[in-house]
UniProtKB/TrEMBL annotation:
This is GDSL esterase/lipase At5g03610-like. GO terms for molecular function: hydrolase activity, acting on ester bonds. Belongs to the 'GDSL' lipolytic enzyme family. It comes from Anisodus tanguticus. The keyword tRNA processing does not apply. One of its GO terms (biological process) is lipid catabolic process. InterPro entries: GDSL, SGNH_hydro_sf. It comes from the Eukaryota. Pfam families: Lipase_GDSL. Residues 1-21 form the signal peptide.
Length: 358
């Protein structure tokens, strides 16, 4: 029962989520040096469109409503809060760099100009369906995208969509919402997964129908290794029961993507194996971290001083959180989100499998 309650709290926290000098720019330049040739394609400039949650959001939340706009978020890059749920760069930034383009502007910051590198529509805390945060779910995010294609603005046309890529990271918050609304009853999680997959399939079909040429969908991370879960073991062990939900979701995701590719007759949809990338970066062996490059892989850098607070909270001028001395030695930034260095480790594990996006 204790593990079950901890698991529920871990998932629910995703809904309300919230370096020491680290060579952030150097990281991006390192990837660019290898992949810069991909910024141009025979059909035109690469464009990246991003949909989903806090793992890919680069600043869509209103500045007054999210802890991602509070210190110490953004400490490593760009040096102040940027709306990212980390101390610096997140997965979107590294994928964009791999493609040889700048990270797409958040939708709320796009203005009225033509956006060369794409747009980021992701909002932290959101899901395939509505969650407890009052921000646009994936369907609404795609509506925004469609308006840029077919509305009065017509920012993009068929020609400059000919080499377009979508990055999708979604679903964890849908599970949290269901469990909260249903009194932590986990018996119907199979049906929930089926519902998520059905709607996700519709959303992915719609993106392709709107002209997106290639679509990468992230697996669910090993949620049993998030610090909110590992706290109970003094950040020593991952929860196998929680990780089993991630694996089940990912198994169903693979089946859905295989079905979609069979029906399109060409490999349009690709899975980014985030689960394995996390496990590799953390060097998890039998639910224990091994010899990774991180001091304590399952412990966050930014920690609240008590359970009623979270990273970034203050009471008056008093900080209700503490920071580690070296963020670059922490895989996790807070109890849910990787640090910039953590995301770089995940990206490095993913990089050999990213060629289908090109």
């Amino acid at each position: 029962m204790e593990n079950k309650v901890c698991f529920i709290w871990c998932l629910c926290l995703c809904l309300f989520t919230y370096m020491t000098s680290f060579p952030a720019v150097g990281m991006i330049e390192e990837v660019d040096a290898v992949k810069r040739q991909h910024g141009k394609h025979k059909h035109g400039d690469v464009k990246l469109f991003v949909f989903g949650d806090s793992y890919v959001d680069t600043g869509n939340w209103p500045t007054s409503m999210s802890s991602s706009w509070k210190e110490p978020y953004g400490l490593t890059y760009p040096g102040s809060p940027s709306g990212r749920f980390s101390d610096g760069l997140v997965l979107t930034d590294f994928i964009a760099s791999f493609l040889g383009i700048k990270s797409p502007l958040p939708y709320n910051k796009k203005g009225s100009s033509v956006i060369r590198d794409g747009v980021n529509f992701a909002y932290g805390g959101t899901g395939v369906f509505n969650t407890f945060v009052n921000q646009p779910n994936m369907t609404t995010q795609i509506n925004y995208f469609q308006q840029l294609l077919q509305g009065e603005e017509q920012v993009y046309n068929k020609e400059n969509m000919s080499y377009s890529i979508a990055l999708v990271s979604v679903a964890g918050n849908d599970y949290a919402t269901f469990l909260t609304k249903n009194g932590n009853n986990m018996e119907d999680l199979g049906n929930v997964t089926n519902s998520i997959m059905s709607q996700l399939e519709l959303n992915l079909r719609r993106l392709h129908g709107l002209g997106v040429q290639k679509i990468g969908i992230t697996e669910m991370e090993p949620i049993g290794c998030l610090p909110k879960m590992t706290f109970a073991s003094s950040y020593k062990n991952c929860s196998e029961s929680a990780n089993s939900l991630s694996r089940f979701h990912n198994q169903m995701l693979h089946q859905t993507i295989e079905k979609l590719n069979n029906q399109t007759g060409t490999p349009v949809f690709f899975i980014l194996d985030v689960y394995s990338a996390f496990m590799s970066a953390l060097d998890i062996q039998q639910n224990h971290p091994g010899n990774s490059n991180f001091e304590n892989p399952l412990k966050p850098c930014c920690m609240a001083t008590s359970s009623e607070y979270s990273c970034g909270d203050k009471r008056g001028i008093t900080k209700k959180y503490v920071l580690c001395k070296n963020p670059e030695l922490s895989f996790f930034w807070d109890v849910i989100h990787p640090s910039q260095q953590g995301w770089f480790a995940v990206f490095s594990a993913l990089k050999p499998s990213l060629s289908p996006l090109m």
